[in-house]
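Changelog note: in this version the structure field was regenerated for every chain. One regenerated record is shown below for reference.
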Amino acid sequence: TAIKEQLHAQKAGRITSVDFHWYLNTYHGADYFRRWHGLRKNSGTLLCHKASHHFDLLNWWIDSEPEEVHAYGMLEHYGRNNSFRGNNCRDCIHTAECKFHWDMTKEQMMMDLYAANEKHDGYIRDNCLWRNEIDIYDKMAVQIRYANGVSVSYSLTTYSPYEGWRVAFNGLNGRIDSWLDIPWETQENIAQSELYKQGMGLENAAGAEPEYDEIMVMNNFENYEQIKVPRIIAGHGGGDEKQQENMFRSTDAPDPLRHQSGSRDGAMSALIGIAARKSNEEKRIVRIDELTDLKPMAVRP
């Protein structure tokens, strides 16, 4: 929201391009390959399942709709890219040598929720992430051209040593940079599994030291401005609480930054991922209007 405020105020002038890079760590990122997401028939690849959230952010920040997409995606780390594999972590003989081994039996909630119900739905929560049938991408790079002329370079990595993201907005008059959870930027030394649980609201972070995230705003001919944004350690960075507030308590509250979205917004974020997958498979640029009767608009309607 603080980034959106800077864009809305045109602190960098008219935005012409965006660099957006998202890093999933070997705790969170690996988990997608253990579960049902690892098969594209279930998830549509992470370009659809995971990255659609990121594309949704981009559409909102840029305040426009996507027009063309060009993408690359490959499976180079998980799945068949290992010398050994098993059925699932619980009965694996490679626990000593596999750095990704996860002992679900130590988490009673997981055993009650998943293991106890495998006989009903066949869903194995701790599948081997090296299994050969995995057919989604674990690295992705996407170029997006918007109807208002903005171009985006986006990437998603699923085996980073840390979890976080970087974004930069290049404008005619300057640049806006921001990032989240880049360890050396914040001098933090927190276990990646704990960071994930806090971000998803699975653990109470009460009593933690006050923290700030930063936005750097630089004019082409002036010094930079450092904006400190108080960090909210709660479900999805505080987004869960705000969304519930808007849906159930303050349905008529003012919405100057247009946080509220509709089915068209959902379609446009999903369509970027669908177009990206199609582009990678067919090795060509894919236009959004090939996939839908909706005509991309220069200003988000």
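Spot check on this record: The mean pLDDT is 92. The radius of gyration is 21 Å.
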